[in-house]
């Protein structure tokens, strides 16, 4: 499966999922994308102390923080960025995930959940450098794709199991 096919399939899964499936997927995915180890490699001179604290608090409370509180935390982070265009990739992943989550909480738009899924795929790609022609060739990427499918379309795994020959 190439990258464009993967994107199209993820979009199809997000659009076709139940509300409960979308919410469960979004919660699990945002939690994975704001894990503390993504912030470990951040240089001290990238964010102010206030921005670091706001980011850490938002990450630690991602499933309980309100959209308004998350908006305020992201504004604090944005104001506290000390570098022009060279933020650590882990920080960018976390900020992007929090922004999509905050928007999802406010507007309940599935497009934000799709963006979380794509950020999750990109996060795995950062670790394993997937092949653009066969994006699921690495075990890590195949596992992430299966996680997405399992959460957004729980019946898909059962259907595939019945078609084995």
Write a structural description.
The chain is mainly α and 165 residues long. 70% of the residues lie in helices and 0% in strands. It contains eight helices and no strands. It has helices spanning 3-16, 19-33, 49-60, 67-79, 89-107, 110-128, 139-152, 154-162. Helix 2 runs parallel beside helix 6, helix 3 runs antiparallel to helix 4 and helix 4 (67-79) runs antiparallel to helix 5. The longest helix has 19 residues, at 89-107. It is globular and about 45 Å long. The two termini are 21 Å apart.
What's the SSE blueprint?
Elements (H helix, E strand, L loop, with lengths): L2 H14 L2 H15 L15 H12 L6 H13 L9 H19 L2 H19 L10 H14 L1 H9 L3
Supply Rg. 17 Å
Amount of helix: 55-70%
Alpha-carbon distance between the two ends: 21 Å
Q: What oligomeric state do these chains adopt?
A: single chain
- Outline the low-pLDDT stretches: 158-165
The largest sheet is: none
Mean pLDDT: 89
Query: How many helical elements?
Result: 8
Order of helices and strands: HHHHHHHH
* Helix/strand structural class: mainly alpha
- What sort of overall outline do the alpha carbons produce when their principal axes are compared? globular
How many strand elements?
Answer: 0
Binned strand content: under 5%
Which features characterize this protein?
single chain, 165 residues, mainly alpha, 0% strand, globular
How would you summarize what this structure contains?
With 165 residues, the chain is mainly α. It has eight helices and no strands.
């Amino acid at each position: 499966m190439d990258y464009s096919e993967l994107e199209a399939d993820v979009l199809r899964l997000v659009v076709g999922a139940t509300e409960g499936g979308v919410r469960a997927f979004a919660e699990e995915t945002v939690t994975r994308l704001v894990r503390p180890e993504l912030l470990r490699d951040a240089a001290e001179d990238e964010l102010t102390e206030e921005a670091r604290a706001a980011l850490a608090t938002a990450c630690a409370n991602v499933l309980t923080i309100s959209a308004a509180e998350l908006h305020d935390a992201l504004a604090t982070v944005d104001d506290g960025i000390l570098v022009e265009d060279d933020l650590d990739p882990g920080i960018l992943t976390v900020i992007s995930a929090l922004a999509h989550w905050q928007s999802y909480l406010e507007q309940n738009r599935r497009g934000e959940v799709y963006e979380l899924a794509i950020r999750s795929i990109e996060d795995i790609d950062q670790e394993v450098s997937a092949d653009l022609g066969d994006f699921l060739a690495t075990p890590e990427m195949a596992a992430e794709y299966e996680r997405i499918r399992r959460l957004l379309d729980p019946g898909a795994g059962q259907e595939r199991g019945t078609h084995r020959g």
